[in-house]
Design brief:
Length: 185
């Protein structure tokens, strides 16, 4: 089972992952019912790059998605796949490509998740920014205008009520506890 939705924007990635996926219920190499295709250290690295972001186990590969659209996937021991509108900054060391996902025009790029050419703090910062950019870009590919890039409801979305009750006036007593100005009488 996969938690990544079967959306048109995910088709190429899902096809590749489905092709390599091997069901495995139990064992050292099981990952949410599938044979693990990513080293546990890389899964931990992905979690560190996007703290508090849900990691979706997709056919044995951890994936980050925004609004249901895949943005980042971790594979093997040293491949971080990111979906971006342009190539990652040149200072980031690339990783081995994964055709056809990383073919020109697909919008996926392969970077090394360890960045040995950068200091540890710089590597963490640059890769975290890259992951955030990939998540924002993936969200922009969604047609869902009622949620933000993290999938939370947007306040004041078109056609939605602002949540304020109609016909009610604010209380005249706006002392300091309610955030009003001046002294209470």
């Amino acid at each position: 089972m996969t938690l990544l939705p079967d959306l048109p924007q995910n088709t190429v990635l899902l096809d590749l992952l489905r092709e390599q996926g091997v069901p495995e219920e139990r064992g050292t190499y099981a990952y949410e019912g599938w044979q693990l295709h990513t080293h546990p250290d890389l899964i931990e690295r992905l979690e560190d790059l996007a703290p508090h972001w849900p990691v979706l186990a997709t056919f044995g590969v951890p994936v980050l998605a925004a609004k249901g659209i895949a943005a980042v996937a971790a594979r093997g021991t040293g491949i971080l796949l990111v979906r971006l509108p342009e190539a990652p900054p040149e200072l980031l060391e690339p990783a081995a490509p994964w055709a056809p996902l990383t073919d020109p025009g697909q919008g996926w790029y392969s970077v090394c998740p360890w960045q040995s050419g950068l200091r540890s703090a710089d590597s963490q910062r640059e890769l975290s920014l890259l992951v955030r950019h990939a998540l924002t870009h993936a969200a922009s590919l969604s047609k869902d205008a009622d949620t933000d890039w993290q999938g939370r409801p947007v306040q004041g979305a078109p056609g939605k009520s602002s949540g304020k009750a109609k016909g009610r006036r604010p209380s005249k007593d706006q002392g300091s506890r309610q955030g009003g100005r001046g002294r209470r009488r």
